[in-house]
């Protein structure tokens, strides 16, 4: 079952013009068919194609369990132009994540990542802490549990970069498998009934290839992310949104 997906409702469109369209991808929805996720039967590409009645081209990717801004081109030529911007680092992306522990106010994470084929690539992420919380929930030898809401800005686009970088600095994203903390993931499932990954692609900024105008697309968080913000941070959620 793809948690967070309501296939009776159309995909939420955040932006659309004659060249591009962006959706707020739910947690659990694959961008396209993948041999590593044979259990999935629905995909963002096909759902959006059917919803718009025309072919769409994903110009970037989000992990299955990551929600938020997902951008598509409406032609092969626009797809090529947008992918060029991504390769040149001209697209600015911002994510929100709920992670284990209290993170520093700011941190630059400069940690190369190894691909499955063994090639090592530079990877850089800027972290900014938005909120911290400590709740009366025992965990291990501790009588309380600490969490942080962080803003993550990657300047490279490596596979699972944010997930791996947060694990590297010992503040894994809640709900992340396999890079996160399985004990924390079990705690959230058992105590809160939460079984997704708390990573949200909040915003994307770029220059429109046709109009040369700046474009900013922002996605409100999905219901489960919002619920956990309320559970962990209480009234602070309203100040963040």
What does this entry look like structurally?
Its EC number is 5.4.99.26. It catalyses: uridine(65) in tRNA = pseudouridine(65) in tRNA. Residues 19-168 form the Pseudouridine synthase RsuA/RluA-like domain. Responsible for synthesis of pseudouridine from uracil-65 in transfer RNAs. The protein has 241 residues and is α+β, with helices and mostly antiparallel strands. The chain has one domain (13-240): Pseudouridine synthase. 23% of the residues lie in helices and 30% in strands. It is built from 6 helices and 12 strands. Strands 1, 2, 3, 4, 5, 6, 9, 10, 11 and 12 form a 10-stranded mixed β-sheet that branches. A two-stranded antiparallel sheet has the order 7-8. The chain is globular and about 55 Å long. The model has no long low-confidence stretch (mean pLDDT 91).
């Amino acid at each position: 079952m793809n948690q967070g997906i309501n296939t009776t409702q159309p995909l939420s469109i955040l932006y659309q013009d004659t060249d591009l369209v962006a959706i707020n991808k739910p947690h659990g929805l694959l961008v396209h068919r993948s041999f590593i996720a044979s259990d999935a039967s629905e995909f963002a590409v096909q759902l959006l194609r059917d919803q718009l009645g025309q072919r769409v081209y994903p110009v970037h990717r989000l992990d299955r369990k990551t929600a938020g801004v997902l951008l598509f081109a409406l032609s092969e030529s626009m797809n090529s132009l947008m992918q060029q911007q991504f390769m040149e680092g001209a697209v600015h992306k911002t994510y929100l994540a709920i992670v284990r522990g209290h993170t520093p106010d700011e941190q630059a994470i400069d940690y190369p990542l190894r691909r499955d084929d063994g090639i090592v690539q530079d990877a850089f992420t800027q972290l900014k802490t938005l909120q911290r919380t400590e709740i009366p929930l025992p965990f291990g030898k501790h009588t309380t549990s600490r969490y942080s809401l962080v803003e993550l800005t990657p300047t490279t686009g490596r596979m699972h970069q944010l997930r791996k970088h947060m694990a590297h600095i010992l503040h894994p994203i809640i709900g992340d498998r396999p890079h996160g903390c399985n004990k924390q993931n079990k705690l959230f499932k058992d105590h809160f009934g939460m079984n997704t990954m708390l990573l949200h692609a909040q915003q994307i900024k770029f220059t429109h290839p046709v109009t040369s105008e700046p474009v900013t697309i922002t996605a409100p968080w999905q219901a489960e992310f919002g619920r956990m913000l309320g559970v962990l941070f209480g009234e602070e959620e309203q100040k963040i949104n």
